[in-house]
Design a protein that fits this description.
Immunoglobulin-like; single chain; 10 strands; 3-stranded antiparallel β-sheet; mainly beta; 5-stranded antiparallel β-sheet
Length: 118
């Protein structure tokens, strides 16, 4: 992993160990009150990664993260309305929490969801 302001190693979730680096940044949208939130994950090039959550009805394939430079740095920016949003990453079809996020809640399946507040 490279030195970044936010780094974390994800523990076991759904039986898989994965090392991730994730950074979130946000910018205010002046026309709608929504903010652009950037999710970033470090994983092997060629991995299929999506961000899914309450903001897209938990569609596991709605928001694919891109590795533009083919260096394992995946990202996607989403316009989110003010409030709390639960989410997870879907990595090669498996759901994973974001342990670099300090806010988590227990979901209806007894596992964790990460929470971002806009």
């Amino acid at each position: 992993m490279t030195n970044r302001s936010i780094q974390q190693v994800i523990g076991k979730q759904a039986g898989t160990d994965m090392a991730k680096t994730k950074k979130k940044t946000s910018k205010q949208s002046t026309t709608t009150g929504r903010k652009s939130v950037k999710f970033q994950v470090r994983e092997k090039p060629g991995t299929n990664i999506y961000v899914s959550g309450s903001f897209n009805n938990w569609d596991g394939e709605a928001k694919q993260m891109k590795d533009i430079d083919d260096n394992g740095e995946y990202y996607v920016s989403l316009l989110l309305s003010p409030g709390k949003h639960e989410y997870k990453f879907v990595v090669n079809g498996e759901w994973h929490i974001d342990t670099s996020c300090p806010l988590w809640v227990i979901n209806e399946y007894g596992t964790l969801n990460s929470v971002v507040e806009v």
